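Q: Structure tokens for this one, please.
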Amino acid sequence: MHAVRSTVAPRRETDPAPGAPSRRALLRTAGLLALTPVAACAGATGARPPAATTPPRRLPPPRAQRARAPEEPDAKPPEPAPGPRTTPPAPPPPVRTRPFARLPRAGHALALTFDDGPDPRWTPEVLAVLAAHDVRATFFVCGRQAAKHPALLRRITEAGHLVGNHTWDHRRLTGLGRAAVEEQIARTSETVRRATGRAPAWFRAPYGEWDRTVYTLGARHGMEPLAWSVDTEDWSRPGAAAITRRVLAGARPGAVVLCHDGGGDRAQTVTALRRFLPRLRADGWDLVRPDRRLTRGAAR
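A: Here is the predicted structure, written as tokens:
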């Protein structure tokens, strides 16, 4: 009996068992399983794989902008800075037909005046006596003297006294022509203005001689005419006692006292000043400067 030979080839170790998946199938399955977590993670985060695009264009960094304050629609524009205050010029006085010999509406007061200065020897002494008694006065200066001593003129005004116009060189105006009178008045006012910063507001004619031309030109230069009611005649040097007596005897409301601080030796005037000022103060007199405001409406 012949043995039956099997026709089935023997199974190699590398061949898959019957019914088992082949190696190629296993490798394919393993590859799919390896890719599954990546896909799952991508799906969980919602991220997309980047698309292949051109690199983004670089933009220049933004420039810094200056911070601006918010606008206020109701804000008012700044007001301009105030300029220097100026005193409006006084209206020109009327042309008088006579000078003031007394102060109008002065009350219990009188005015002390000095002519013919400034004098470097006597004016400082007069100023010292006035300062010692806290008295203000009016100095009618001659332009020629004022031009020589402008610092003394400023000292007068800085002490609170007034400066008036007494012509350039003390000439009698009534004997001069109109042009000469104009020069006498105008030169003196300009000299005072340059030295003190202010032109005189009062004018006194030498020797007390006035006429229509003098009144007219004085008013044209903005000045009122002022004479006197008490003449001490100190120019004649009658002695300090006589000067003192005349002042005290003439003390009246609104009186204008005439003395001199220039034109000669005024030692007697200074001595008399030291005597009568305390007496006037003790009697209750105020010694004042003439006030232009009180001349408004006065008879011409």
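A few notes: Helices lie at 23-45, 123-132, 143-148, 150-158, 178-196, 212-220, 240-249, 267-282. The longest helix spans residues 23-45.
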